[in-house]
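Quick one, tokens below:
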């Protein structure tokens, strides 16, 4: 059911036709959703959805910094090696959360590994909440690859760097 707010006529409820598809493999699915009004005005919305449970969560926290992000290289390597992955974009979804034992594909707990990309950002590379969630994820058996140009520059050798990233010396 879709409720449409129209300032001239008030809310209207639309019952779109139901569509059901069976996806045989864990794979991203691309959708194109078109809405056409009675006056022939139309708009399209495109979105991707991963159906199933991916092995790796790629957290894109790089603000689309194309000069310093290894995003394309990482996704190409995953595709070439048949590793399933889901992409979490912090610009759209905010930081990912961690709930022990969660099986939800929107929770870090359900992934075997996380690749977190901060690009060339030198501020807010990882927030306090990010670090707490990552610590809990790692304490519960998760694996992390952090690609960050300036995490140490911003935070120094804090407890997260020493105890979780295992960085003890910086030159």
């Amino acid at each position: 059911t879709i409720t449409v707010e129209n300032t001239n006529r008030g809310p209207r409820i639309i019952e779109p036709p139901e569509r059901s598809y069976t996806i045989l493999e864990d794979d991203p699915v691309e959708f194109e959703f078109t809405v056409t009004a009675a006056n022939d005005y139309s708009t399209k919305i495109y979105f991707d959805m991963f159906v199933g449970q991916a092995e790796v969560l790629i957290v894109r926290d790089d603000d689309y910094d194309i000069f310093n992000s290894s995003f394309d290289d990482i996704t190409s390597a995953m595709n070439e090696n048949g590793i399933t992955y889901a992409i979490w974009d912090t610009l759209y979804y905010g930081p990912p959360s961690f709930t022990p034992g969660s099986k939800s594909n929107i929770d870090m707990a359900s992934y075997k590994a996380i690749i977190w990309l901060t690009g060339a950002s030198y501020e807010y590379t990882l927030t306090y909440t990010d670090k707490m969630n990552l610590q809990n994820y790692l304490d519960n058996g998760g694996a992390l690859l952090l690609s960050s140009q300036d995490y140490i520059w911003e935070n120094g050798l804090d407890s997260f760097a020493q105890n979780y990233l295992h960085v003890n010396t910086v030159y």
